[in-house]
Every structure is written in structure tokens, then in C-alpha cells.
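Sequence only, no structure available. Ideas?
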Amino acid sequence: MKKILIGIILFFVLLVIGTNIFVQTKSDFIIEKVSELLEQNLNAQLKMQELPKISIFPNLSVKAGKASLTSKDYTITFDQASVNISLFKLISGTVQINSVSLDTLNLQYTAPKTTPQHNTKTNKEQNQQTSKNEQTQSIEEIIALIPTDIFIRNSNIFYKDQDQEIQIKNLNAKFEDFGINKNSSTILEGEINYTNKTNAIVFKILSDIDFLLMGSSIEYSINSFNFTPIKGLPITKPIDITAQSAMSFNPIIIENIDGKIKSPFVDLKITGTGNKKEGNITLTGDVYPLATQEFLMPDTIFQNIPKTAQINSALTVAKDKITLKNFELKAHNAIITIQGLYDILKQDLTASLTADHINIHDYLVKETKQTAQTTNKNKKENIPQKTQNTSQKISNPFKLTFNITANANNIAYNDLIIDTIHSKLTGDINNKKQIIHVTPLTITSNKESINATAKIELNPNDLISINYDIPKLTARHWIKAISKQAGLDATINSKGTINFKTSNPIATLNGNGQLNGNTIKIYTKLLPFIANILKASPKIEDSYEFTTLSAPYTIKNGVVSLSNTYVDSPVIYVNTNGIANLNTEYLNLHGNVELRKQYLVFPYTVKGSFNDPSVGIDLGKQLQIIGGGLLHGGQAIGGGLIDGGKTVGGGVVEGGKVLGGGLVKGGKALEKGLNKLFK
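Reply:
I predicted one. C-alpha cells follow.
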């Protein structure tokens, strides 16, 4: 027995000595073969400044100095690397990587431009192949290929494709005791840069997480997760997250969580319980809308955004559905609640939303500090972004259908109180189309309603179409939303259609409609202004009552055309024709104001911008009217003199005929002259 033990010991000694000699003398041969394999399979070239050091016992270990691996698409360099593989597992026919250590790793990868290729395999064949591959490797075998210990020091990783760039600088990571049923931990720190065609974001991450991986579930404790944005995001202060939790992967279910999220914008507590079938999560705490707005839009000041709002929500996650039992947001006196169900298998969302006591005025812009130059710059910067979004193709399959009911009560907008808002939204969104139907939208105030239906077609047409119907509306009541001093008091009804492109709503606005009204009172300074210019003597008040309003309109590319728009009454008649360009905010209107009792007609024009319109008298038309009056007046005067002359005497009669004829002929000559002058 003693000789057998001595023999076994001598065998292992000779084996270790012989293997080390072989490795030291043949390592160049091994590198040569490895290089050939890399060249054949990866089209990559391996270069090393010195031969690696390889040892066999007690584990297979490879240590390498400065080296590089270069291909057409990527380059990998490092100052020092080592890999440790379990020799015992290797002898038994499996591979277990114990540890990987990399110093000053630099990875640069540029994705090649690929053209879509036709896939001849059917979905059934692909699913069968995927299922077969999944069966060949258990999760334990996959985990065995992941190093138990990973050490990365002072490294940089760069990735680039045609849409984006990702760069990780000064990466330091340490994964210890990683594996199934092992208490593991990781410490990760570094700076991450993300850039695409429209954004450039830079932030730092420092994390310390303990975890236990058990088959398809994980228990973890986030000791610290510090997220510090540097560039590209409105957040400039660190965000700290701590949590203790358990999570299953299939499905992803939170079994236990007790943590908090704190930042300049939120202070939330998250808790949860669950089992293998479903998990329940509650989220409570405060959000800070004013602080968020000041970071997101520092140059814009709103009327009265709340400093603090309270959130209280409950969520259940199961294998085939996610249920939002309750989401409640309180700000000022407003309460917003949401409930819903998302079917994961059908990819279908059903939800209801209710809002109470919201003052819209609080969230309107009060003033802005942005200059015209900044605004123009932003407009220019938005152009390529729109082009990019239009041309972007989504390759991954995506599908979502939804049915959302929304109700709101007691919504204030300035002095207007909207009693109820009811809307139902249904949608079908996938890679080829994004269509939302609003059927209907009903807004009610003071027992009067505005009804509308809409079709929002974001993809592929980028078009919003709206049909509206207003059966009866008191203008003075609804104008409170715009101005306390209503310029119009009327009972009106209207129907119409409008549509526009979301990429440029005003310039692409099209539609037509008809506005009718009765018992109208218009408050205006326009008519007294005209009367004063012409030095007219009749008394004209600052308000005018009409019995009828008719305003047909058409909109084409943001230009509103008014044709034969008029208000009418026994006392006064006003008509309007012309255009109002919503895109350039330019007015070009003209029409007549007729004072029927005074037999006076005043042609007018309105030109200029919306903010500073120029109102004037159309002198050309006015002189034509005066000229026409003189013509008819000359004929009347002549006739009167003739009739009078018959009574007075023959001489006077003859004189009257001469005088009348002269006036008539003179009037005709004046008419010809005025027509030539004012045509």
C-alpha cells in the first residue's frame, strides 16, 4: 500500500513537471495554432508582444501581457489578461471558467452596414430550431461558461453603428463568486457616453450589489446605486437607489422588495410581496413637478405648477397579465386616478382614467426667457430629427392594441368650468402602422356640449383628422376661457372637419365648416372708428346686435378663407371676405359696413399681423359709392326742377330742362371718369 501511494505521488510530480516543460517550450506553437483558428473563424489577427505563460496544475491558467486582436469591424487590446479554468471539470468533460482578469482593456467595435436578407425559414421552423437549441444547453451549463470571478480595471469600451455610439470610460468592475446558488457580489463604476443623431448623454454609475442566483430566480440587495448625469440630461444631481428584493425571471415577478428611490425630483418608497405566480408592488411618496420643470425647461415660467405632488399606486404582475389596481396622483386640489389591465400574451391594454378638479391655468406658460435666436436654432435642430424619425425602420416585431376610457370632472380653464370630459381611445400600433381612434370626445359645460371624433394616424401618414359637431353653444360662456371681457355674445352652432400633419400642424392645417348663430351681440370699436373717420353724424354705440350670423370657411395649408361671411340685422349689416394666414399670422380682410337707417355704406379693410392689425377705409370703393350717389342724385334733381318748372312758369320750365339735362349728362360723364379711375 505504501509503495502504491509513493507511486501515485511520483506520478503527479512528474506529470506537473513534464506539463510545465511542454508548455514553456511549445507555447509559441500553441499561439500559432490559436492565431490560425482566429484567422479562419473570426477573420481576426492576434498579435502578442511576448508569449503567454501557461500552467496546468492545480488549474489551467493562462497569463498574457500586451496583446491585440484586430478584425475589419473591431479591435481589442489589453495590457494584461489572465484566465483560470477548472482542471477537474475539464478532465470530466465540462468547462468551468473560474476567473477572468483584464487590465486596461480597450474594445472598439463598429457594426458593419448590413442589407436585409430574405429568410427562407418559416416561423414554425425557427421556433422549432430555437426550442431545440434551448434544450441542448441547460442554464447550469451556460452559467458554467461565465467566469466565477471577473476583474476589469481601468478599461474602455467603444461601440458604434449607423444610428448610435456607446462609450464606457474608466470602467472598473468586480464580480466575485458569481454562479448558481452562490452568494455573489458586484462592484461597478465608470463613465458612460451615449450619442445618436439628436442626443449626447454622459453620466457616471457607481453600484454595489449583492445577489444570489438560483436557477430562474434571483435575490438581490442593492447596497448603493448612484446615477450622476453629467451632460445631455436635465438632471445634474446624483440619484440614489437602495433595495432588497427577490425576482423570478420566467415570468419576471417581484417576490419581495423593500427599497427607496431619492432624487431632486422624487422621494419614493417601493415595497412588494409575491410568489412564483404573481407579485404585488406598491409605490408611494412625493414627486416634485416644479423642480422637474425648472430642470427640463429652465427658460420657461409657468403660472402655478405645484411644488409637491403625492403618488399612491398598486400593481400586480403575473405570467400573462399586468394589473394596475390603482394609480393616484394628487396635486393642489386635483386628483388623477388610473386603473388598467395589460394582457401580455395578446399585447392588449384596457384602462380607465379619471381626473377631478384640475385648473388648467396653473400649467399654462406665464413667460419665457428664450430669445428669437434660440427659438430659430431649435427649429433648425428639429428638422433632421423629424427626417430621422420618418425614415427610421423598426426591425423588431412590435404590436399593441388598447382600449382606454377617460373621464374628467370639474376642470377649470381661466373662468370657464368644464363640468365633464368623456373620451374613449382605441388603438392598433405595430411596426407598419400607428393608428388611434377617438370615439367620441365630449366636452360639457353649463349643459352645453362639444362633440368630436378623431383619427390619429402617426404612421405611416402622420395625419390627424377631426370631425366636430357643436349643436348649441353660448359664446359668452365659453369665451371665458380666453378672455374675461367677451367680445361676442351669441347662441351658435357649428359643424366641420379639420386635418393636419403632426410634424407641422399649422402649415398643414386643412378643412372646412359652417358657423351659424342668432341673437348676436358684438362688442367692437370698429364701427365708431369708421364713423369718426367719415365724420358721420348718427349716434353709433360700442355694441351691435344682429339676428343672423353665417360664416362658411375653408382652410388650406394653414390659410383660413372667408367667403360671404356676414352678420345681419334690421339696423346694420356687415360682411367679410378675405384670408387669415395662421402660419405667418397675417390678415387680409375686406368688406362693407351698412347702416341701413342712415343709408350709409362704409367699405373697410383689415391688414397686418394678428397682434397689430391695421384697420382702414377702402377709399376707392367709398368714392365709387359716392360717385354712384351723385349720378342718381343728378337725375332726381333734374326731374324735380322740371316738375317744379311746370308749376312756376314756362321760362323756368325750359331752364329746368336745361339744368336737369346738364346734371344728368354731367353725372354720366362723372360715372365714366370714376370707373376709369378706380378700376
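The chain is about 25% helix and 50% strand.
Hope that gets you unstuck.
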